[in-house]
Amino acid sequence: MLSFCFVSPRRAALGLALLVLPRLGAAQLLQAKPAFTRADSLRGTLTPLRSCYDVNYYHLDVKLDIPQRAISGSNLFRFTATQDFSRLQFDLFANLKVERVVYRGKELPFTREANAVFVTFPQPIRQGTRDEFTVYYSGQPTVAQRAPWDGGFVFTEHGPGQPWVATACQGVGASIWWPTKDHQSDEPDSMMISVTVPKGLKDISNGRLRKTTQLKGGLTRFDWAVSNPINNYDVALNVANYEHIGDTYQGEKGKLTLDYWVLPENRDKARKQFDANVKPMLKSMEAWFGPYPFYKDGYKLVETPHLGMEHQSAVAYGNKYQNGYLGRDLSGTGWGTKWDFIVVHESGHEWFGNNITSKDIADMWIHESFTNYSESLYIETHFGKPAGLEYLHGLRRVIQNDGPIIGVYGVNREGSGDMYPKGANMLGMVRTVLNDDAKWRQILRGLNQQFYHQTVTTEQIVGYINQQAGRDLTKIFDQYLRHANIPTLEVRFEQGRAVARWIADVRGFDMPVRLRTKGGEWRLVQPSTAFQPIDVPGLAKDNLEVDTFNYYIGVLVE
After folding, report:
1. Which segments of 48-181 does DSSP mark as H helices, in order?
2. pTM for the complete prediction?
């Protein structure tokens, strides 16, 4: 997703500099704490009524009524009981009607509260049992006003009498349009998506097209089979009179199918833009992160009436066939207009977001920080490391330092939009601290292997990086993820010697940092939160340089 792109830019100094970034005081950080409700907890907490069953498979089968902006159909839940239970929760927005819940041919009683639905079974379902039920529903789903930043359906036309419909629901949740266990921790192992639309239109959803069926009443049903685990918000329908462009890529796991579904009037420029961007993107991502995670389901780009979303194996694309972010360079360096932002960024989520998914949206930095960082790696792959680092540094101009990057657990609340550029710069700093590019690449690839098709927590990701790095980097992650402030390096010159300390929120913060005398060789020092001498020969107040290009820190010299 792309929320950071709409933060007002704030200028940041480029290059090496002595800069003073004062830490925010309590008054500056004081904001009205959000008042969470029971509805937030029902949505965001993995209660026993949700953890009691593990979803193995969904079959979402819906019919779209475009003139009425309505949807009707069903979703089959196939699950394994993780404990004995007789009652469970699934989720569906209250504006959509649950027609009935059917279990073994009989309707089950259910109650509703906010956007949660509670179902009672006639007898206990025992731990280890594999079972299923089906939810039938209908109604007019929420229409998004600013997709993809708010969730729901987009109903529009790309010409007179040419319907164009899409969904986007990250954050608000998939239950805004279909009944599901709406918690990121539980992904079905596979899924079938069946969408019925008026004849002459096509639905493009996730996975591979299994079957197309002509129905009575001038309707067509498209059945899409997803062979890999998929998170709820990635499930999508895209409806228009699409045309198909096919290609293949010889990747690390063999031949990967590339399918582009575009509006007829855009076919030529789509081919040109995608030919120029997709294979270079895959080359970079596979080199840094490992094989594309969904060879079974293929790779697709689908033209959408919204800017873009990381819909698994059906990436939504609305960047109008131009480089940059709608033609702009978010970094201000010039490197951001040499490639298509949506192709690179949203496809990067196939590794971080789709292959590796956070259990709680509060940990969404796992999706966005790594994917924002992948943009600089793309530039490094094709234009060299200095260019990639320059782009990464340029992204600092949109950092706000307005709150923690990690959100509030259990209430479906993500953290600051700084998870994009600040999180990416944090990862760049970790690479600098390691000072071993081969090991760093091995760690990034290893994450996608170790947590292949899994849901994870911050602790798991940081723990893995620590283990593979052979050092404890937890304090660095904690400072940048759990606090709004960036650490400030305070340097004092006393009685002919230099001493330094970190001013930070994390107790015992001791990130190594590079210093030098002006024009000299960089030396790595490791201050703590107490003043200690700096061992840099000839260092003086007027010749001190701190590597603020590779480190996103404040510097205070006295």
Report:
1. 48-51
2. 0.94
Contact 362, 413 (CB under 8 A): yes
CA dist., res. 534 & res. 544, Å (int): 11
Low-confidence ranges of the chain (pLDDT < 70): 1-33
The tokens 């299923």 sit on which residue?
132
Return the amino acid letter for 262.
V
The pLDDT score that the predictor gives to residue 33 is 65
Residues 393, 408: Cα–Cα separation, whole Å:
28
How many residues make up the chain in this entry? 558
Residue with tokens 């060789």: 521
Q: Rounded to an integer, what distance in angstroms lies between the CA atom of residue 206 and that of residue 192?
A: 9
- Number of C-beta neighbours around residue 157 at 10 A: 13
Using an 8 Å Cβ cutoff, are 230 and 99 in contact?
Answer: no
Any idea what the Cα angle at residue 280 is, between residues 274 and 285, rounded to 5°?
Answer: 115
Please identify which residue in the block is written with the tokens 């198909």: 244
Neighbours of 28 (CB within 10 A): 13
DSSP characters for 173-224?
Answer: -GGGTS-B---TT---SEEEEEEEEETT-EEEESSEEEEEEEETTTEEEEEE
Three-state secondary structure call for residue 86? strand
Nearest to 514 by CA among 480, 531, 539: 539
pLDDT in tens, 291-307: 999 999 999 999 999 99
Which contiguous run of DSSP H or E holds residue 316?
A: strand 315-317
Which pLDDT belongs to residue 32?
Answer: 55
Mark 468-495 as b/e (b = at least 16 C-beta within 10 Å): bbeeebebbbbbbbebbbbbbbbbebee
C-alpha distances in Å from residue 497, one per residue of 296, 502, 533: 62, 17, 7
Give buried/exposed letters for 51-72 (b at 16+ CB in 10 A, else e).
Answer: bbbbbbbbbbbbbbebeeeebb
Cα separation, 27 vs 296, in Å, equals 53
Distance CA 211, CA 83 (A): 36
| CA distance linking residue 296 with residue 251, whole number of Å | 13
H/E stretch holding 376 reads helix 365-383
Q: Among candidates 407, 281, 431, which has minimal Cα distance to 349?
A: 281
pLDDT tens sequence across 529-557: 999 999 899 999 999 999 999 999 999 99
Q: How far apart are CA 215 and CA 324, in angstroms?
A: 42
Q: Rounded to 5 degrees, what angle do the CA atoms 420, 427, 451 make?
A: 90
Pairwise CA distance, residues 149 & 169, whole Å: 8
SS3 category, 415: coil
Contact 473, 433 (CB under 8 A): yes
- Sheet (strand 152-157) strand order: 152-157, 163-168, 237-240, 202-205
